Sequence to fold (259 residues):
Amino acid sequence: MIYNGDCLDIMPTLADKSIDLTVTSPPYDNLRTYNGNSQFDFEGIAKELYRVTKNGGVVVWVVADATIKGSETGTSFKQALYFKEIGFNLHDTMIFERDSFQKPNHNRYWACFEYMFVLSKGKPKTAYMISDRANSQSGKTVSSKTVRNADGSTSTRRPVVIAAFGKRKNIWAYSTGYGKGTTCKEAYQHPATFPEQLATDHILSWSNEGDTVLDPFAGSGTTGVAALNTGRKFILIEKDESYCEIIRNRIANHQPYCR
Fold:
């Protein structure tokens, strides 16, 4: 489902506890104008996200901070703390590492990441940890050993064989820029896309096939394409009509698993 309108007008029409997962990257700190649509009521949207999220559901909030008059704004942290105030758990603070970035001021290091706050409504009902980190000790047997428990007692761990791949760390690196985040050229008519694989990886981590995935700041529709690729339903909300046209065309011309 694709909606053209302000998400604070559309989201109240969604049923309570109807969304399994939200993956979104809102406008932040006016770093982009988005055709004059960069302003939004964060607190109102946060409350609506809490209302529509199922118990055990997850919100992935991808944000960064601008530097103004020599100081980073800290907007991202303020938003994460507000999510906690209204009932979400800050389940994980993850990093999206980009391979493209702007030249910094002479007294700062290169800025190459954004935060990915993983917020849960209670304990996540779904958590499939991606295991694609190659283990150098693959196949090796780790012998049993006695360990001391917190209460002072001891227990013996059984021997285990190290698997070929281990669980991924919480810093995820993706290629960004034209032709890298997606093969869909039309997506780059939007000024700030995020990688299709990023959306896909979160969808695979925090939802099941047939679940409903929401993006209230749909942009070029990347979350919707990733949902289609992984067998999920989607609800996309985008305020700008020209961006909605990009989304409609991407969805209409969608080729499964084509990035």
User: Anything to note?
Assistant: The chain has two domains: 2-130+169-252, 133-167. The mean pLDDT is 86.
